[in-house]
Structures are given as structure tokens and as C-alpha cells.
Amino acid sequence: MWLVFDKEILHDEDRLEDYDIQADSTLELVNRPERSRSFGGQIGLKFVDVSNDHALKRIGWSTTAPRWRRTRHGLCLEGLCENEKCEAYNSTVIMPVGYKKIDMLDDSLEKITKCPVCKEYVTPITCAFNNCWWKYDGVQICKKGPSKQCSGNWRQADDAYHRFKEYQDETVSWKKLTLEAARTRPAEILNIQPTDARTTQTTVRSPAVAVATTPPKNDCSSSGNGETAIERFAQPDKRWCPWKSDSCSISLKIKGQGTVEIMQRRSVPFELQLSNKEDACDRNAYSIILSVNQNEVKLSTSNGQSYTSVNNIYTLQPEGQYWHRYWISLFSSTRNVKYGIGEVRPFFSVFNIELPENELQLIKEIHYLHFKVNNNNQMLKELNNLKEDFRISIGTDPVLHEPALFVIPQEKYTLKDATCHTAISEMKLERPLRDLYYSVINLELNTDDFPDLTDVIERSIKNPEGWCYKKLKEKAERFGTPNPKATYLRLTAGERKGNAPGHNYVIEVWPPGHYSPIHNHSNAYAIIRVLSGEILVKLYPALTLNVNQYKPIEQICHEGRVTWMSPNLNQTHQLKHLDLIGKPCITIQCYMYAKDDRAHYEYFDYLSNDENSIETTFTVPSLLDGHEYDFRVMAINENGTSEPLRSTAPTTAKLPFKPPGAPGQPDTTGMTNNTVTLNWDKPTSDTMPINTFYTENEAGKGTPSDATTSTKVKDPNASTNAPEFVKK
Questions:
Q1: Shared domain check, 414 and 318
Q2: 210 occurs within a structural domain
Q3: 82 and 159 in contact (C-beta within 8 Å)?
Q4: What is the full DSSP assignment across 615-637?
Q5: Which of 622, 651, 680 represents a domain boundary (last residue)?
Q6: How far apart are the C-alpha atoms of 416 and 654, rounded to whole Å?
């Protein structure tokens, strides 16, 4: 029996939303009829050559594609709808298959290969894959000679539409062909050959065929937190609120390991307890206790071990506008426990402790997290006002190694990169980072049209008359105390799209020895690629006034290197061109907010040049002429950050003065054979002091005056009588 809706068979692994089934929809239960497929008398199947890697193209998702171009994760078939009454007539339609293994010559395939609009049969001519591992196996019928066995190893398709381009006159005949798509990486994979994800161009198609596809509907392996190939770097991702759950305790997903992150906006002491007992007050429990207050931070166990720091950069941070992050990581296999502040990574650990070997079994039994604020056992009722000032996140992975800073193509990713964490594959980046990476990885500065661009930029920096030189001089006081070295040029590319803090693409020019302030970029995703030269990257745990008391992570990025930034990692940083006398360094940076970012914080937070404050004067760059802007200012000292003070009204970016009015009508008061002396009255409206007047109409210099009356120019010393002739 089949369950059918709108002439389409419903498959067990699919969901109701995949078929647009509503509350009042009618489903039918029908007998399976005996159907047969016809191949028009031909032996075999005419289908795209899936053994031809050159025909495989990576196509990005679209939000405007027609409804017959909708996909699902896994395998999709495509064919031409020939139903003249159908909306998709003469268009290539997508027929989602999903995570399955199918025989392309099996008669039962007819149940799948139907137009998603009219439900009529469509002959498949090509296929595509997304968010899956896939392979094929088949036998091609050769025009000359015996049939040829063709098969491919498992390959990975990322979150894009990897499609075989069909050439109608070059399709091949298949005697046998099976296609298979798997949700996760199959266990039998030995040699991974990834899809060439760098090919971002779409294929050239006939006008009757839509090339764009809409993204798959929600799926268990979508490109969010469930994307199995993505590297998460042990970042906690499960949000827990004691007040909303009406409990100060929660169980860990995996016994003996995990990471807990506490983000705090108000400076209130707290205690976190990892225990093997569900009751936080059980005296027989084995516990690891983290206690943080203004005076000290203490990490201890119920068996008597204790580790304490009174350094104020590790204790409870001053209250202010910003959130402060504290975290603890546990890994029972190595008896390791870490406490850190700021970004969740080993380098920013305050304590990195190996617990006694005789406690291994007790550590493995830790299964509960207990939380307490201000040493108050009645916090759920008495401190309910704090529930919006704490954000607690829990993750299953312990913090073990530093995230790799450099991104490399999948085909260059080696076992050494994976085990030593020297680089991360492009395929392991989160989707926003992958999209940004693909958009700039092939960018070149010196092209055939402009082969010496970098040399031109260098000369412009050194020449006092050059645009770069003048702009750097203008920016010398931008970041607080005047310091010419604390300047660099930001050249925006494209238009603002509203999905990034400012422009999505920014080319930055770093003269020798110049550097940026310590800053962050609004918790956005970012890719930074060095186009020319090299630059030093310094990473800090958080942006605070005492940030320089923390030891930064330092890494030099050479030409061609790509590094990355996510909302939780590599955010607070400083860039510096170390070469003091050589060529400038040029980078491209591209940004994008996370999909779930609803705040879109567009402010550029930075530490001033004196590293003690943010100055009261700041020139805001990269504004758009004629656009309105709101501004806000916050004061910071060692005790915290003030509430922001906003500008009273929006400010429009434009020149502050209008051109002056027209001067009075000129009069001539003197002349020679080649000059005229003019007099006129000042304009009645000059809007600001006038530097000079021009006697010709020049753009931007004001409205020209009326013309004078006609004046004959002559030598004032010349005789007015006719010349006399003297007889000789």
C-alpha cells in the first residue's frame, strides 16, 4: 500500500512539511499498481556522464528560484517537464530523492521521477548532491568497443548544489547505474576526494531552464549545529537558564566530560559545582567546585585539592555594559580540568590542572551541574531579577587544543593538519565562513588590466602628494592620542547589504610598521586573506581596559594565507605590519552576521592609542552621502562601562555648508590691452567665510553672476586721432 498526497507517494523517511501537507489536506491509501518503464526501444539509459569531473559544478543557493527548483538534502534528479499544461513546462525541474541508494534502470524509479508541480512523469537526465556523502557505480555502453565499468569513491558535497551539467548531445548510455547519497561519512571511506568546492560559477544554461535552486528544507543534518563535518572547537551550544527551568541543577549529556560557559552582565559572585550526585548538598558527593568573586577565583575538589588566584584580571570582572565570559572544562580520560576567562580556548586558561590518578573513577562518574549565585540557596525566588544578566551554555566536548587559525583547501588538508591543528579545511568551516572564503579566495591584486597595482599603492604611500599619503596623515589622530603608526587605509568594495557590520568587503592597506588598535567586529563572522606582504595577528580573550595584561596569541600571516573569525573565537584582535622599511601589506576582510544574530551591533569597539580610554573625539569613516546615522558614546574606567548616550537626533552625512550666493554684478574700473579690472559686491548669502572668488563658472564654487555690459578693450595710452603723414 502507498500513502499518496496530490498524486505523490509519501516516503517513510520524509516529513509532512516536505510535501506541504496542511491540517485540512486529504491523504489517500492506494494499492501498489504494476508499472513499467520504457526507454523508447533503446538498450540502456541516456543520462549525464557522472564519471566526468569537469561536468560537476558547485552552485550557490537562491531565494528567488521557482518552486520546481526546490531541493532536499542528499541526492536530487533533474529532468525536463514536457507537460504543456504545467507551469514548469519546458523547464528543468528538481526531483528530490534524499539519502538513498537508487538503481537508475529500475522500473520503481518512476515513482520518484515526477514533476513537483504537475506530478507527471519526467525523464531524468542529470543529478545533483548537497549536504551529503555520495558515490556512483555503473557500466557505460561505449559506441566502439565493449562496455566500460565506471565507479567512484565516496565524495563529500557541502552546503551547496553540486550538479552535473548535462550536454544533450553528449549524454552517455548506461547499461547499469546506481547513485547513492549518505547522511554521514560512511565508515568504509579510506581515501577522501572532496567535491571541488572552489568552483563557484554557475553553469551556462538555456533560457528555458532556471539555474538557481532554493535551499533544502529543515533537515536533521542541516548546516546549523547539526552539521556533522563542521569543526565546533568545543564551544558550548546548549543554553540553560536556572530561573526558566526552575532548577539550579542540570545533568550533563556525557558523564565525565564537557564545557560550561557562564556569561555575566552584572558583577555578582557565583559558584559552579560539577558533581557525581544529583543532590547538590549530598555530603558523599565527589565534586569539582569553581568559585568566582571580586577578591579571588578558586578551583577545588571535595577531596581537598585547591587552586586559587587573586589576580584581578582572572577574578570577577567589573560591572559594565559588556558581557564577561568565564568557563570550565572537564575531560575525565586525562583527569584534566581547566578554568578560563574570555574566549573558550586552552591559551586563555587560568588553571590547567591534572587531578590525582586515584580519582579517575570518581571523575568519570560526574554527571551533574549545580549553580549558585551570591551564595544564595534561594536564588530562584530571591534573585529572580538576575535571570536576564546570566547566560549559561553547556557543551559535550572538553577544551583540548587550540583552534587552527589558517584555512586551506580540502585537497591540501593532511593528516598532520588534522592531528597537529596547524590548519582547518575549508569544508570544516561553518557555512557563513565558507561563503565568505569562496568569495575572496580567487581575488588577485595585480591583474592583466592593472599589473602593477601594488607598486602604485606603495608609491602613493611614500609620495607626500599621493592620495594614500594624505589620507594616512588625515587619519593619524583617529584612534585617540596622535600616532601616525596607528593608521591604515580601509577601502570598501561593493554596497552595504545589511548583513554585516558595515560593508561586507573591505580592502585594507598597511604601510610598513603600521598597526590597528585592539578591537573587535560586533561578533560577526569574518575571513581575512593576505593579498600582498605579511601581517602579525594578535588575539586577546576579550576587549577590556586591562586587555594588555593578558598574553595574546600571536601568529604571522604570510601572503596568500587565510584566517577566520567567528562570533565566539578570534574576535578581539590587533593587526600589525612588522616590516618597518619594506613594502606595504594589503589584506581583504569580509564580514557577515550569524543567521540568528538579531541585534546587528554595528559599532566598532576599540582601545585608544594611549590604551587607557576612548577619546572624546572620533571621526567616523565610510559613511554614505545623504544617509542618516544615529551615534552613541559610552564612558569606561576601571570600575566598568557607563550606559550609552545616544545622539539626540539622526545625523545626515553631507557637507556642512552650502555654496555661497551669487556676488553683485561686476563693474569694469580699469583696463589695459590684455587685462580688465573688475569690482563687485560680496554675496548676500555666503554661509561661511569665503576664501577666494573666481571669475569663471566652476563646479561647486557658487552660482555665477550676471554678465557685464559690453566693454571695448583698448590701450589707455594710445592716441585717439588718426596718424599724420609728413612729406619729405
A1: no
A2: no
A3: no
A4: -S-----SPPTT-EE--EE--EE
A5: 622
A6: 55
Query: Distance between CA 197 and CA 157 in Å, rounded?
Result: 8
Q: Report residue 249 as a C-alpha cell.
A: 541543577
Same domain, 460 and 605: yes
Q: Are β-strands 407-408 and 424-425 bridged in parallel, bridged antiparallel, or unpaired?
A: parallel
Coil, helix or strand for 367?
A: coil
* Dihedral sign of CA atoms 550, 551, 553, 559 in order: positive
Between CA 366 and CA 369 the distance in angstroms is: 9
CA torsion angle 306 308 314 315 (round to 10): 100
Q: What pLDDT is stored for residue 186 in this prediction? A: 77
Same domain membership, residue 692 and residue 585: no
Q: Residue 54's Cα: distance from chain center in Å?
A: 29
Residue 206 has, within 13 A of its CA and on its CB side, a CA count of 9
Angle at 606 between CA 583 and CA 656, to 5 degrees: 90
**Residues 531 and 614 placed together within one structural domain of the fold:** yes
Q: Is residue 498 part of a domain?
A: yes
- Cα separation, 183 vs 656, in Å, equals 60
Task: Give the residue among 148, 230, 136 at the shortest CA–CA distance from 566.
Answer: 230
- The C-alpha cell at 490 is 580601509
User: How far is 331 from 255, CA to CA, in rounded Å?
Assistant: 10
12 in any annotated domain: no
At 467, the amino acid letter reads: W
**Total domains, the chain:** 4
Same domain, 460 and 599: yes
Angle at 241 between CA 236 and CA 247, to 5 degrees: 120
pLDDT cut 90: percent of the chain above it: 46
CA atoms of 299 and 674, how far apart (whole Å)? 93
Helix (H) or strand (E) holding 458: helix 453-462
Q: What distance, in Å, lies between the first and last C-alpha atoms of the chain?
A: 138
Using left for φ > 0, alpha for ψ between -120 and 50, and beta otherwise, residue 666 falls in beta
Neighbours of 23 (CB within 10 A): 5
Q: What is the pTM of this model?
A: 0.56
310-344 per-position pLDDT tens digit: 999 999 998 876 789 999 999 999 999 999 999 99
Same-domain pairing of 92 and 72: yes
Give pLDDT tens digits for 230-242.
888 889 989 999 9
Structural domain of 303: 238-395
Q: Show which of 143, 161, 182 is a domain's final residue.
A: 182
pLDDT band at 646; cut points 50, 70, 90: low
Give me the residue label for grid cell 605579511.
534
Residue type, 20: D
Pair (172, 39) in one structural domain: yes
What is the per-residue pLDDT across 687-720, written as a single tens digit (0 to 9) for each?
555 655 556 544 445 566 666 666 565 555 555 5
Is residue 436 situated within a structural domain? yes
Partners of 515 in the beta sheet?
A: 576
pLDDT of residue 39: 37
Q: 77 with 148, same domain?
A: yes
What does the CA dihedral 699, 705, 706, 708 come to, rounded to 10 degrees?
-110
Give Dmax (Cα) for the chain.
Answer: 145
| CA dist., res. 572 & res. 323, Å (int) | 14
pLDDT in tens, 608-634: 555 444 344 455 655 656 666 666 666
Residue 663 in contact with residue 683, Cβ under 8 Å? yes
Residue tagged 541508494 (cell numbers): 101
